[in-house]
Every structure is written in C-alpha cells, then in structure tokens.
Specification:
- The protein has about 525 residues and is an all-alpha fold.
- Helix 6 (about 135-155) runs parallel beside helix 8 and helix 18 packs antiparallel against helix 20 (about 475-500).
- Helices cover about 85% and strands about 0% of the residues.
- It is globular and about 65 Å long.
- The chain starts with a helix and ends in a 6-residue tail after the last helix.
- It has helices at about 5-30, 35-75, 75-105, 105-115, 120-135, 135-155, 160-180, 185-210, 225-240, 240-255, 260-295, 300-325, 330-335, 345-360, 360-370, 370-375, 380-430, 440-460, 465-470, 475-500, 505-510.
Length: about 525
C-alpha cells in the first residue's frame, strides 16, 4: 500500500464531495439564510452527524480497522469476514434500539442539545420534528462505516471515499425537487438526509460484494472478537471525536446567543472543512490500516517514516490553506453564500468566525495524522485522557469568551482546544518512542511556515487592487476570487521550492512508495 496514492484517492473523492457540499450549502443559504429556520435545520442535521462522527467514523472505525486488518494479515480474508459479519449484526441491532429510544425521547434530547430554543415553542417543536426525520441516518451511516472499514483494510479506498458525494447529491435533489412538495425547505432537506443513508448503504454493500465480501447478518452474538471491539470503541468515542464534541458544545452555547449564531458557525466550519476533509480525513483514513499492518509486522522504522510523511504531506498543504482563509475569509464567504436571504451582515459575521477557525486548521489535520499512532497499536485509553483535558478547556473558554466575542469567541475556544489536543498527542507518542520528527520534516517545517506567511502577505496586498472587483457583481466577485486564489497558489508554490520546503520530485517519489531523503 502506497501512502500518498491512498491519500490521493481518498482526497480526490473528498474534494468532489466538498465541491458538491459547497453547492449544497449555497442552495441552503439562498433558501434558508442564516436565521431561525436555518438554525433549526442545522441542529437537526448535526445531531445524527455527531453520533456518526463519534461512534461510526470515530469510535467504530478506529477500533474496527486495526482488528479487521490484523485478522486479514494473520488468518486471511475469510476469517476476517466472519468477524465483520458478527460486528455488522451487533452494530445493526444495537443501533436500531438506540435510534428508536432517541426518537421517542427527542423532546428531552433537544432540551440538552439546543436549550436556547426552549423560549420559542414553534422553533423547538420544528427542531424536534426535523431531527426525528434525520436521526435514522445514524443507523445507515454506521453500517456504511463498517463496510468502508472492510474496503479500506483491503486497500480499496475509492468506493468508501465516494459515499459523501451521494449525501450531497441527495440534499441538492431535495432542495431542487422535493422542497416544492413539503411544508418548508427544512422538511425537504431532512428527508434528503434520511434518503441518503439508504442510498449509501446500498452503494457500499455492492462495493464490498465486488471484492468478494458479501456481508451476511447472523444472529447477534458477543463473540470474544466483538467484545474486544466494543471494549475499544468506548474510549475511542471520546478520543477520536474531540473536534466533533467541541462543535456540539459550540452548538449548545451558540443556541443561547442571538439568532443566526449557529448558522454563522456552521457556514464557517463548512468552508474550513474543505482542507480538513480533503487532507485530514484522507490522511487518517489511509494511514490507519497502513500503520496497523506495519506495527503488526514489527516494522518500527517504516511506521515512524509513514507518520512523518503523513505529517509532511498534511502540513505542506494545510499551512497555506490556513493562511489564505485567515486573509481572504470575507471574499470567500461573499462569493459562496451572499445571495437571497444571506446578506452582507451575515457575510461579515461568518467571515469573522472563519478567520478564527483557520488558525486551528493545522492542528485539526495534525490530530488526524497523529491519532492513528495510538489506534494502530490498539491503545484507545490514552486519547481519552487527552480529549477530556481538551473538552474542559473548550468549555471553560466558551463560557469566558461567548460574552465579549459572541460566536467568534466560540470559534476561538475550539481552536485553542484543538491545538492542545495535537500537542498532547505528539508529546505522548514521542515519550513512548512511537513518534519522532525526522531530519527531513524538521528541516522543512519552518520553511513551509515561511512560504505560507509570504503567500499570506501577497494575498493581503492583492485585496487592495482587487477590492472593487471583489465587491462587484457576482461574475466580478467570482473572477476576483479565482485570481486571488490562483495567484496565492502560484506564490506559495514558488516560495516552497525556492525555500526548500518541497522539491518537485518529492510527490512522485512518495506516490511510488519512495522515501526521498
């Protein structure tokens, strides 16, 4: 398995998904704006996605992939499939009961998830109704996560990486085709979420079958392997999901702030998620099965090299993205969202949150590259302890900063806790001898920083002569932003090569599996 090739596969499909996601969000912003209706839908959308990211993509994937990949390596694919089927059955029936229980208790759940809605009965009731429609998505996407883990462990990344595309297509279809038949656009979007879960399950079930793994559903049984899986899932639910937990805390507190605060944070996070999703998710997805196999085979030097190269690839692309989003946040938000119910006031508020979120972008991606160092060694307890410290910091800073800085203070708290998370993960791995920055990464990190800073200064300067274009018609804004982004990429590329942050042959070497010194 070649790390960069796997990252490229996952990242490429994720990029397509993010572009479609932006189209989806542009349509949502046009029909819902950033007011009370948008706040309600985003709460209904976030609740199942919270559990998806914590338990399905977070806890389940991080615990399941090392076990499944290890069994493939040790006893073959057929025995590994039996383990996957046992896990599939237990996961399905457990989540079915959980979903039914949450559906029945949804008003109580909403009291805790969005307490700021309590004072508005109509808003609260609509949030309960829409979330009841979207919540079954958790069941479907959790099964998707298991099947994605199977495929990734077999070195097949494309089908699983394409599943978010299906979600965005369903939501776009709901806005354009279903909204005219429902009582509100929010209802259409909620049904789009539920439909997407079914489509994604069918897509990956067939993809697994094409690899010779037609998963059956035996009678649920807590076999020793499944017990091990469940035991490791519990701590990973916190350890792998600190960023998502922070976003939930943000949502709860933002619901207490003026209307629109939840929406400002949502739209800003969506833009910030583009590099995070394309890079962070791709690196974490590709790195975990590779590290699991290298650790199982006792290839310590290879594992250290894989982790260093994952960080190098991540930071080489993330540092300039962070610098750009800090400098040109307002033109980006204006081009993407300012139309219909989303006006200049909403643009300014969302851009302020985005510029702060961007400060934490390198930390978010570093967490994705460092966490597999624990999970590949089947250590799920340590990340929990680190996550608890980060959650406490996030909560304390939220309460301190929400008063003077409103939603921007919430974004700042998330950034601070994410940097703490990345720093502690790196420190603990280093102490255990499982991670050390090699000479190549140590030499190139400061050069990457200088190249990103130079690009940021160039973008700041460009905002002057291009200011009128970026404030003009829609066509002018898009053209101006393309010029700014394209120019920024060119400047960073030149500076990166000139300063020695990257060499033209590096990517080719990594893609082929080499280790350029």
């Amino acid at each position: 398995m070649v790390l960069l090739r796997s990252i490229t596969t996952v990242g490429g499909f994720t990029l397509v998904s993010r572009v479609l996601g932006f189209l989806r969000d542009i349509l949502i912003a046009a029909v819902l704006g950033a007011g009370a209706g948008a706040d309600v839908f985003f709460v209904a959308f976030k609740l199942p996605n919270l559990f998806r990211r914590l338990f399905a993509e977070g806890a389940f994937s991080m615990a399941f992939v090392p076990l499944f990949a290890g069994r493939v390596e040790a006893v073959g694919k057929e025995a590994a499939q039996q383990f996957a089927e046992a896990a599939f059955s237990v996961l399905f029936w457990t989540l079915l009961v959980f979903v039914i229980a949450v559906e029945l208790a949804m008003p109580l759940v909403m009291l805790g998830f969005a307490p700021g809605f309590i004072g508005d009965a109509a808003k609260f009731d609509l949030a309960v109704e829409l979330t009841r429609i979207t919540f079954p998505y958790l069941l479907f996407i959790s099964l998707v996560s298991l099947m994605a883990g199977v495929l990734n462990s077999l070195g097949r990344f494309a089908a699983a990486a394409a599943t978010p595309i299906l979600l965005n297509l369903c939501l776009i279809g709901a806005i354009l085709g279903l909204a005219r038949f429902t009582s509100s656009p929010g209802h259409a979007l909620a049904w789009g979420v539920a439909a997407a879960g079914v489509v994604q399950v069918l897509w990956l079930y067939v993809a697994c079958g094409r690899q010779g793994v037609w998963l059956k559903m035996p009678r649920p049984r807590l076999s020793p392997e499944v017990r091990t899986l469940l035991r490791r899932m519990a701590p990973v639910a916190v350890g792998a999901g600190v960023y998502q937990i922070n976003l939930v805390i943000d949502t709860v507190i933002a619901s207490l702030l003026p209307a629109g605060s939840i929406s400002y944070l949502f739209y800003a996070d969506r833009v910030n998620q583009l590099p995070l999703g394309v890079l962070g998710v791709a690196v974490g997805t590709a790195l975990l099965p590779l590290l699991s196999r290298q650790v199982r085979a006792g290839e310590t030097a290879a594992a250290l090299n894989s982790q260093n190269r994952a960080l190098e690839i991540s930071l080489l692309l993330t540092l300039p993205a962070a610098a750009a989003l800090m400098v040109i946040s307002e033109p980006v938000i204006r081009v993407l969202f300012e139309r219909g119910q989303f006006g200049p006031v909403e643009t300014a508020a969302t851009a302020a949150a985005l510029s702060v979120y961007a400060l934490g972008l390198p930390a978010y991606v570093m967490v994705k590259a460092l966490a597999p160092g624990f999970f590949a060694r089947e250590d799920t307890a340590t990340p929990v302890k680190i996550s608890v410290a980060c959650l406490v910091l996030n909560l304390v800073l939220n309460l301190i900063l929400m008063g003077p800085f409103k939603h921007v203070g919430i974004a700042a708290a998330t950034v601070a806790s994410s940097w703490l998370n990345a720093g502690l993960l790196a420190y603990v791995l280093h102490r255990r001898g499982h991670f050390a920055i090699d000479k190549r990464l140590a030499s190139r990190l400061p050069r990457m920083g200088l190249a990103a800073a130079g690009m940021g200064l160039a973008l700041y300067w460009a905002l002057g002569p291009l200011g009128d274009m970026l404030m003009g018609t829609t066509a002018d804004r898009v053209t101006g932003l393309v010029v700014v982004v394209g120019g920024g990429m060119a400047v960073f590329g030149v500076l990166a090569v000139a300063l020695g942050a990257a060499r033209p042959g590096d990517l080719k070497s990594l893609y082929r599996g080499g280790t350029t010194p």
